[in-house]
Amino acid sequence: MSEIRRRQGEGDDKNLESAESDHVDSEDDKDLSATIPTGTNKSLPVLGELLQSLPERWRNWVIRGIFTLVLLGMFTLIIYVGPLALMITTLVVQVKCFEEIINIGYAVYRIHGLPWFRSLSWYFLLTSNYFFYGESLVEYFGVVVNRIDCLRMLVTYHRFFSFCLYCGGFVWFVLSLVKKYYMKQFSLFAWTHVALLIVVTQSYLIIKNIFEGLIWFIVPVSMIVCNDVMAYIFGFFFGKTPLIKLSPKKTWEGFIGGGISTVFFGILLSYVMCQYPYFVCPIEYSETMGKMTMECEPSVLFRPDTYQLPECLHSILQFFGLPYTFSCYPFILHSLSMSVFSSVIGPFGGFFASGFKRAFKIKDFGDVIPGHGGIMDRFDCQFLMATFVNVYITSFIQSDSPQKLLSQVLYLKPEQQLQLFHMLKEHLENINIL
């Protein structure tokens, strides 16, 4: 009997432990809509009074349209100010998107009494930015920074310092673990790192795209905006056929109309921007001028070239008296690839975000932009597009420019630079260039 009682006691202990564990770490299906603010139906009080007589559908249309124009105006102003303003804006957007994602994590796991955990998330954000933006600083401004004695060590050992900072956060996290919150803490730890992967890494790629030339930033961003706006317009007026269950309001009519509009818009915008060196020249540090410049001889991508259509079409074109050659900027052909991606694959960034929001029963990531939602609601497709553009540039476009190679040579010690000079001179003499 004592054996039976002992086993029953053990069972009770296990049940109690299980119940305690379930009480602490189980996740119910709580609706987070009351916790996370929504901006889709939000409007300014004055605007709400003016539009109160309209049906809700048209009221949302007007509010969304007004703030879309406001956002486009702000975007144009930032472009006018210059690349530095674009980079600062990218950083601000990154921080806000990270905040919105992390706030959802806190609402889901409902950990409010753990010391330092919110601070840990922001610490990892700071560490990630130090690493990625430090990489950009070393790559594009290394020659300048290397001349400042107090910063030379940071440049030389940048990755080591970044790793040490991350290790500090890792140790901090382990020391902050609380027994009955293990599952939630590790879940939020993973949540934070996924947020960093989605937001910080993509913003770093956006910065790299800007340095390749403003056209590589403005055209893709504008394509996503055009696709979003035109898909909304076509869907609003003509939408009847549902596209995907994750977003019931998305329709095939909007998807197709937005895609076709984006292709034509991308061609037109690319044609206009290819004519201005300000947009097509990469941002580089000039050793002779002692400053960052956006002046260059445009590359072959931005100079008109003649192309011949496939021979199988020649007879047909001749029959109608049409030429079988055409002239255009090579970049326009590349813009077709970007426009197709932004129209076909880009919206899936929005569908992914919709699935994420449905999983946690929230309507928007935030309420920053009336009629639109949070910052992340507007940049979900942009992050995916930025990654594609960077991969596209690296795979099909990018080649090391003499200016970039020179900046790397200047990192060498004087005797190494002299050795490289003699090696290059000998090579050029052997191939009869000198």
From TrEMBL:
Pfam families reported for this sequence: CTP_transf_1
Xref: InterPro entries: PC_trans, PC_Trfase_euk
A GO term for molecular function: phosphatidate cytidylyltransferase activity
Alphabetized PROSITE patterns for the sequence: CDS (PS01315)
Bias type Basic and acidic residues, positions: 1-24
GO CC terms, sorted: endoplasmic reticulum membrane
Reactions the enzyme catalyzes: a 1,2-diacyl-sn-glycero-3-phosphate + CTP + H(+) = a CDP-1,2-diacyl-sn-glycerol + diphosphate
Segments for region (Disordered): 1-37
The protein, known as: Phosphatidate cytidylyltransferase
Family: Belongs to the CDS family.
Gene: CdsA
EC number, UniProt record: 2.7.7.41
Topological category with respect to the lipid bilayer: Multi-pass membrane protein
TM ranges: 61-81, 121-145, 157-176, 188-207, 213-239, 251-272, 331-353
Compartments where located: Membrane
Alphabetically ordered keywords of this record: Lipid biosynthesis, Lipid metabolism, Membrane, Nucleotidyltransferase, Phospholipid biosynthesis, Phospholipid metabolism, Receptor, Transferase, Transmembrane, Transmembrane helix
